[in-house]
């Protein structure tokens, strides 16, 4: 569940549609920029405004939200607060190091480069994951199983990003837990974009059919059959597009489970144990967040104890893709937004 940038060729953003309906019921003015509906504000009778942009609302403090977006800093402060996070190393792109060197050579010497990334991976073990340090929606996440793959991943991502995070792999099922003001709103188990073999078709054919299905159902998932991340992940898994999976065999195609990248999700709120609910609430409190999605890996979210790894906290968790998965999912999302909007109004009315 990640924030989504709308375009003029697509339907109105789910959050905006629900916010307008809420505003009409509560006699609130809702204004959005007309081209995309991506940003705007709600206004009460006294003219006080609460702004939004994408899935970011006026609830989280700016500093806390900025820390959450910076994966390296978020992991640092979570670890310092006693939470379990995968070991990681922040890497700077060569062009960025060169730029800093012209301004402050001493700082440039302290920045980690590709050599440091290779040394780190050799120490923590393969595979490792490489991702932009401040992106969302799973954009740019690559899996590297050896030094050659890591070198390629760093070179690819360094073309568009100044800072990259190389992260130790962690085991477990992938969950997102939504929290607002110390209360868990929902929990979802997420699964990566994948195909299921029929014993005849190649991966290439299965992928093409799957992505064509995305276009047909209008879910707007940001994945194409020729997405280079798919080939990278297959290569890292020892597979090729010409491989024919066995009938019933599931093959993951991406290293992340974001719905915006073709993943799927199932609500597991009622099954989640209080143990993991407490972890989710405490982690957000440690970063000073009110509303967020916590991404967590663990063996079983129903367990009353057990190991886990927090991957990140998203201070602007979007729900559009989950809303479009079916009637039950839509009802869940609409209840979450109703609670969120009520809290926005409470905050607005408490303002001087």
From TrEMBL:
The keyword Isomerase does not apply. One of its GO terms (cellular component) is cytoplasm. Keywords: ATP-binding, Nucleotide-binding. One of its GO terms (biological process) is SOS response. InterPro entries: ATP-grasp (IPR011761), ATP-grasp_RimK-type (IPR013651), ATP_grasp_subdomain_1 (IPR013815). One of its GO terms (molecular function) is ATP binding. Pfam families: RimK. Residues 75-349 form the ATP-grasp domain. This is RimK-like ATP-grasp domain superfamily. It comes from Polymorphum gilvum (strain LMG 25793 / CGMCC 1.9160 / SL003B-26A1).
């Amino acid at each position: 569940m990640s924030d989504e940038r709308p375009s003029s060729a697509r339907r109105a953003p789910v959050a905006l549609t629900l916010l307008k309906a809420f505003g009409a019921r509560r006699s609130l003015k809702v204004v959005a920029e007309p081209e995309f509906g991506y940003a705007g504000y709600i206004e009460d009778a006294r003219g006080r405004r609460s702004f939004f942009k994408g899935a970011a609302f006026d609830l989280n403090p700016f500093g806390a939200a900025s820390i959450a977006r910076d994966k390296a800093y978020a992991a640092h402060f979570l670890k310092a607060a006693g939470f379990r996070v995968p070991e990681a190393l922040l890497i700077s792109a060569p062009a960025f190091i060169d730029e800093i060197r012209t301004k402050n050579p001493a700082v440039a010497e302290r920045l980690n480069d590709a050599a440091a990334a290779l040394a780190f991976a050799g120490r923590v073990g393969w595979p490792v994951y490489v991702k932009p340090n401040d992106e969302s929606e799973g954009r740019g996440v690559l899996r590297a199983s050896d030094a050659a793959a890591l070198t390629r991943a760093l070179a690819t991502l360094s073309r568009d990003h100044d800072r990259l995070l190389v992260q130790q792999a962690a085991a477990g099922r992938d969950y997102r837990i939504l929290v607002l003001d110390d209360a868990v709103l929902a929990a979802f188990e997420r699964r990566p974009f994948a195909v299921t073999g029929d014993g005849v078709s190649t991966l290439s054919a299965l992928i093409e059919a799957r992505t064509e299905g995305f276009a047909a159902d209008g879910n707007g998932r940001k994945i194409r059959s020729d997405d280079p991340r798919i080939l990278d992940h297959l290569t890292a898994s020892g597979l090729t597009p010409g491989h024919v999976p066995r009938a019933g065999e599931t093959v993951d195609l991406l290293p992340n489970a974001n719905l915006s990248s073709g993943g799927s999700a199932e609500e597991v709120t009622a099954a989640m144990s209080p143990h993991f609910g407490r972890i989710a609430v405490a982690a957000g409190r440690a970063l000073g967040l009110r509303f967020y999605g916590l991404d967590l890996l663990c063996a079983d979210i129903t367990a009353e104890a057990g190991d886990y790894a927090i991957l990140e906290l998203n201070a602007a968790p979007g729900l559009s893709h989950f809303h479009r998965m079916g009637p039950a999912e839509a009802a869940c999302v609409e209840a979450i937004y109703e609670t969120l909007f009520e809290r926005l109004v409470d905050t607005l009315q408490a303002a001087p």
